[in-house]
Amino acid sequence: MPRSILFMCGMNAIRSPMAEALAKAALPKGTYVASAGVRHGERDPFVDVVLDEVGLTIGRHQPHTLDELEDDYFDVIVTLAPEAHHKALELTRSMAVDVVYWPTPDPTVATGTRDQIVGAYRAVRDHLAGLIASRLAGRGQVG
Known about the structure:
globular, four-stranded parallel β-sheet, 14% strand, 4 strands, Rossmann fold, alpha/beta, 4 helices
């Protein structure tokens, strides 16, 4: 079980903060969990909607980049987008840290009604919750 985990995506607006909230709820209290993006992004209100449905929140989270993290050592970096995965591998070349890639769809590409768009965000939430439960909270492997 890793003691510190960083979730990374493109802009720290949807996937990584959602994963951070889900992991904080699922993992033991002593586990340090954070999230960051490769680029600056804007907070996405649909994240609040789908997390609220399962009793979670990202609180006052504002998207931030790797450079803005308070701590820069993690046992595991979980990347959720190709751009983040490449950046994490580049940054950790000389470090003893595991970098794993969990391909996660970008729900902002969803079109249609509000319900259809929220459905895409729910699918991402449920995808991440399943991976966290099976690979981090369970006894399975992180990768």
